[in-house]
Design goal:
The structure is a single chain. The protein is α/β, with parallel strands linked by helices. The chain is built from eight helices and nine strands. The strands form two sheets. It has a seven-stranded mixed β-sheet with strand order 5-4-3-6-7-9-8, sandwiched between helices.
Length: 245
């Protein structure tokens, strides 16, 4: 599997505007992202002749894993030109395509309509436009198509702190308009946009950047916490799925 670990000497990966968009690809981060790709795939039916759009694909890892594990046509998009250039350089498969796209602009998207629209930590960048974003996703999906997203959980103590206080937001280089949200917030907006079978679960306690020897214990403990009432509410992420009528 190709990676671009050596390209990022700092813990955070910043885009061409200087905002933090993820974490350096150490072992824990790769394991974390692969697990998320597997969760996304677990929500999909037979992938033969299917199409998947990932928005906010960054440097392309999740799109690559989705394309590698099935025969679906996968389209990874991001507004950051250097990210897409890196993705095209590092990850190549016949059924994998990358393009520069700002989802806010309404530009035509190659491959539409799609069976699935997915993302890992992108909807919170579109917080103030979610009604419009979900309406556009509905337009880009086939009838019965599905959206699948992993997003920061507002009730996780760390996430709550960095998103709630201006000093901490500046310290971690958040975009001015990005904002984590709670489960009920996104459920309400998906239903308002006409999506059905809306499911939002608390998921994932594996921290990016932890020492390698802590990865397996963290996953084991996290698997228990995800099933524990109240404690699961402080997971790192919420796992969002919904179907277009």
């Amino acid at each position: 599997m190709p990676t671009s670990v050596t390209l990022y000497p700092m813990t955070s990966i910043k885009d061409d505007r200087g905002y933090n968009q993820g974490f350096r690809l150490g072992k824990s981060t790769i394991v974390r992202m692969q697990r998320r790709a597997d969760w996304i795939l677990s929500e999909m039916d037979d992938l033969d002749l299917k199409s998947i759009l990932e928005i906010g694909c960054g440097t392309g890892e999740v799109a690559y894993w989705l394309a590698k594990k099935g025969n679906a046509q996968v389209f990874g998009t991001d507004l950051c030109v250097p990210f897409i250039e890196e993705a095209r350089k590092q990850y190549r498969l016949p059924n994998l395509h990358y393009s520069v796209l700002d989802f806010n602009t309404g530009d035509r998207i190659e491959g539409a309509p799609f069976d699935y629209i997915v993302g890992n930590g992108i909807l919170h960048h579109l917080y103030y436009r979610l009604d419009e974003v979900f309406a556009r996703m509905s337009h880009l999906l086939k009838s019965g198509g599905k959206i699948i997203f992993m997003e920061p959980n507002y009730y996780n103590p760390y996430i709550h702190l960095i998103f709630s206080y201006p000093l901490l937001r500046r310290y971690v280089h958040l975009e001015p308009d990005e904002m984590a949200f709670p489960k009920n917030f996104v459920v309400d907006r998906l239903k308002r946009a006409g999506f059905t079978d809306v499911q939002v679960d608390y998921r994932d306690f594996l921290l990016p950047g932890i020492p390698d020897f802590l990865i397996r214990p963290s996953i084991a403990i996290g698997n228990v916490l995800e099933k524990t009432p109240l404690l699961r509410n402080v997971s790192q992420s919420i796992f969002i799925r919904a179907v277009k009528k």
